[in-house]
Design brief:
Length: about 210
């Protein structure tokens, strides 16, 4: 079973990462989907998306849940029926979930040159001009994107701008952690963010630290 990594963040928070190496048919065995989720899978045209969807159901099982324990609110944010918090991510051949007693978010992204073209849309790119090495710049921007995506998933309010409302504190690649803030309307939420890199991918997960 290709459970790639389990991370115990604290006593109440765990991350599960899956490396997708199986076929959709293999991943479907033993998994009972809700009618809504079965319809969602049936409508997916990409095998990568279908397999990613099913791999997440295996991660749910490892965390002690089934598809029937999961539901989504009007903003598309996932929840667990036992009131634990969950966040879900999938990128190419990796998927992951984070389950916690506190508000959380998680994101996985493949490290690609493409991020250099879109960086100005989600972060003040001038802040990174001291990074001369393109590979290091791609890695750092991918971490920033994953961190912001994690906060966006946790905060889950329509209208939040990556560029205007989410700020990630400066960090060095070797730090493996940083902090970040969402400021939207009259609300501010601060998060602790951890990140890791593996096989050309970046994963970041954010845990709510305080609310103001």
């Amino acid at each position: 079973m290709p459970l790639y990594k389990t991370i115990t963040v604290n006593n109440a928070t765990k991350v599960f990462i899956w490396k997708i190496e199986e076929s959709f048919d293999w991943l479907s065995k033993g998994i009972e989907l809700t009618e809504n989720c079965a319809n969602r899978v049936a409508g997916m045209k990409s095998d990568i998306h279908r397999s990613g969807f099913m791999s997440i159901r295996h991660l749910l099982a490892l965390a002690g849940y089934t598809d029937h324990d999961l539901y989504y609110d009007q903003n598309g944010k996932p929840h667990l029926r036992d009131s634990k918090h969950i966040s879900i991510t999938h990128s190419f051949n990796f998927s992951a979930i984070i389950v916690s007693d506190a508000e959380v978010g998680i994101d996985i992204e493949k490290q690609r040159n493409k991020i250099l073209k879109i960086a100005h849309k989600f972060t003040p790119i001038q802040e990174y001009r001291t990074i001369a090495n393109e590979d290091a710049l791609i890695r750092k921007l991918t971490i920033v994107w994953c961190a912001k995506e994690s906060l966006y998933k946790s905060f889950a309010e329509k209208g939040v701008s990556f560029l205007q409302n989410i700020y990630v504190e400066e960090f060095a690649l070797e730090d493996l952690k940083t902090t970040a803030t969402v400021t939207y309307k009259d609300e501010t939420e601060k998060y602790n963010v951890d990140y890791l890199e593996f096989e050309g991918f970046t994963c970041a997960y954010a845990l709510l630290s305080e609310k103001q």
